[in-house]
Amino acid sequence: MARQAQPQTAAELGLMPGGRPTPDRLVTLANWQDPPFNRWAFQHLRELVPTARIDRGTGPVTRLPRETRDLDDLRFAAADGKTTTLAALLTATYTDAFLVLHRKRVVVEKYFNDMTPATPHLLQSVSKSITGTLAGIMIARGELDPAGLVTGYVPELAGTSWDGARLRNVLDMRTGTRFSEDYADLKAEVRQYEQVAGWRPQTDPQTADDLYSYIAGLENKEPHGGPFDYRSILTDLLGWIIETAGQARFADLLSRDLWARIGARHDAEVTVDGHGHPVTDGGISVTLRDLARFGQCYVARGRSSGRRVIPASWIDDSWRGDDETRAAFAGAPQAERFPGGLYRNQWWAPFPSRAVLLGSGIYGQSLYIDLAAEAVIVKFSTWPEALDLTLAEQHVRAFRAVVAALRDAGA
Amino acid sequence: MARQAQPQTAAELGLMPGGRPTPDRLVTLANWQDPPFNRWAFQHLRELVPTARIDRGTGPVTRLPRETRDLDDLRFAAADGKTTTLAALLTATYTDAFLVLHRKRVVVEKYFNDMTPATPHLLQSVSKSITGTLAGIMIARGELDPAGLVTGYVPELAGTSWDGARLRNVLDMRTGTRFSEDYADLKAEVRQYEQVAGWRPQTDPQTADDLYSYIAGLENKEPHGGPFDYRSILTDLLGWIIETAGQARFADLLSRDLWARIGARHDAEVTVDGHGHPVTDGGISVTLRDLARFGQCYVARGRSSGRRVIPASWIDDSWRGDDETRAAFAGAPQAERFPGGLYRNQWWAPFPSRAVLLGSGIYGQSLYIDLAAEAVIVKFSTWPEALDLTLAEQHVRAFRAVVAALRDAGA
């Protein structure tokens, strides 16, 4: 593979230089997800959309000792059959930051595109795995029950399409809700949704004043509990369920139960709509190391600094699932990428026989946790396109190659 | 004075409880400055308006040793001639937080209305004094010159009403710009301005796409360099000048030159408009102790942890001014409150013969620095009205009484 030029950084592109930028350098609510504007925006989302602070609390920061290795020349087979290297992969996939944690130690930590250890980066749908984890914590405390009805937690949804849906269906993306996530289709629900959530200027006739009203107005395409079908709006509903069951705001609950308990170094943040409702499906931003700390808590079977944070049973269930969940996944388009895999508890479990959890977000956000190998890999990116299956495949191939290298070198 | 009930806290009012709030509990961009919604909003402005992070940097936090005293029963003459106490004053003026620093030590530190040491609180126009300080730092470095023309720093303003205005006129609120700051007048410029700045929903016909275009379109009512006339928009112009002279964004410059050098404990933040332009006249939020640290840097003649941060000459000039500045102030309505005082460098200098600097913001924000007494007093509030001259007078009376008590007790 020929040496590729690094993609231009936000600073090299002259984006948002201070003063009054020329239009080609101006990042706005209308263009922030598009290339090259996302190079700047994913590190500055709070400047475009209102955000709630997720307090890191006042406890000690979890140390991440360093035992760095140069894996730049690590070779692996790319999707096109040719051999590539980790360094070439990071360049080719518009990487903003990359971290490998192995047995609690930082093996690789790299920043690109002006990012620093103190920069919160948008997680997109890796947010779902964090939101799901908070639900898991509340389930273990008995505040939520996967078998419980959505309308039991949010009584104002009684008489809507949510009648009969269970929390388990929401966690595993198996309600019957009609919601197209086709980013290429400008008429898809996800485009209306972005306007309601405050992620785009309001240009279409307003479908709802706020995210929760929008959720309440959705319709079904099939019965609840059917096949797996990935729809972000279900995670936003999960956020609403968390707020009503927890009797507090999502950002405060997430801080109390998770973010203030994993030794995060920085506050996290989540975008909120015009009524203060959190965009829990994709609106969380965190720093590189803090996402690694979250992943490490999974590797440590839910413990952080000797304290129980995440239920061990939740972790096991998330990658193992059950026969029904696996069957529900088998017919989905994603089963081609992850044959025998499943989607459970807001995580992808891509391999049937390997304890791996994957959080994955558009434009190249990844949190890859190999529980058996005690490895956590975090990658923040700003791909030019929301969904690029070739780049996504390259990510997973690279992560597997990194884990294999760590194991080969292991004691 | 009879014991007054504490005003209800945001939590007692049930504001923004999580889930879908009833309208009387919903804080939005439309109502956030109005009572009682401001009780919640001034501690959560980033959830309503996009904000840029002002990084605290990675240096050590300036310690604030405690030597607390109970000043609750401190008595002083209120504006109505009756005697009141400090505790009663704090209750009567909707206090969110209050801190007294004397000779580097925390004498009083109190939180109300759910506020904590980690909560950033909106400064309103105390922001001006921070923005002005950054200008002072740049002046000392030769990057700005008070005698320089506005159009020299921002060439795109040539041919507009800003022709002939000098930086000194901007710093001291003495340009000839027409801009009514009458908050009670719904047609005043300040109301249009709030829509352009993103502080209110856009309901009027749009006067400009963004804050800087709005500034460029303003007209004059008189020649530049005339009498003092307090207009917030001049501080926003100052922010623009700072960005062009500093060739970077305001939040980054403020972090580099000030916030990362005073040992702040927390990041600060500033609201930005739809083009990322900072609302430097009123949109900064900081924690209670961090504002005290900023004030302490003035008391320490511009030094923090042994390092020069703010030029000493800037500090002296800010409270002393000169004959011309004093004369320009004499005819202003504010001269009734502060006879013989002046406005200089984005600070009020209320007393002609006392080295006191006052930063003051609507709804009761105050930073009171008595340089001679080595005292810093910070008060965050959420008054029911933007401007209440009686409450403002109570504030200053209380601050003077506190400083007098500290001096009487002093070694």
Describe it for me?
Two copies of one chain form a homodimer. By secondary structure, chain A is an alpha+beta fold. Chain A has a domain at 54-148 and 231-409: Beta-lactamase (3-Layer(aba) Sandwich). The first copy, chain A, has helices at residues 10-13, 38-41, 86-92, 126-140, 150-153, 167-171, 189-196, 211-216, 233-246, 250-259, 288-299, 312-320, 323-330, 389-409, and strands at 51-54, 75-77, 83-85, 95-102, 105-111, 121-122, 268-271, 284-286, 303-304, 307-308, 342-344, 347-349, 356-361, 365-370, 375-381. Chain A has a five-stranded antiparallel sheet, with helices on both faces. Chains A and B meet through β1, α9 and α10 of A and β1, α9 and α10 of B.
Oligomer category: homodimer
Kindly, what is the distance between the CA atoms of the first and last residues of chain A, rounded to a whole number of angstroms? 32 Å
Beta fraction of the residues of chain A?
Answer: 15-25%
Strand order in the sheet with the most strands of chain A: 5-4-15-14-13
Radius of gyration of chain A: 20 Å
Architecture (CATH level 2) name of the domain at 54-148 and 231-409 in chain A: 3-Layer(aba) Sandwich
Q: Treating each run of at least 4 consecutive H or I residues as one helix, how many helices of chain A?
A: 14
Mean pLDDT of chain A: 96
Q: Regions of chain A with pLDDT < 50 over 5+ consecutive residues?
A: none
The CATH superfamily name of the domain at 54-148 and 231-409 in chain A is DD-peptidase/beta-lactamase superfamily
Structural class of chain A: alpha+beta
Largest sheet of chain A, in brief, is: 5 strands, antiparallel
Helix content of chain A: 25-40%
- The CATH topology of the domain at 54-148 and 231-409 in chain A: Beta-lactamase
CATH class of the domain at 54-148 and 231-409 in chain A: Alpha Beta
How many beta strands in the DSSP annotation of chain A? 15
**Outline of chain A, from the CA principal axes?**
globular
Helix-strand pattern of chain A, N to C? HHEEEHEEEHHHHHHHEEHEEHHEEEEEH
Most extensive interface = A-B, 43 and 43 residues
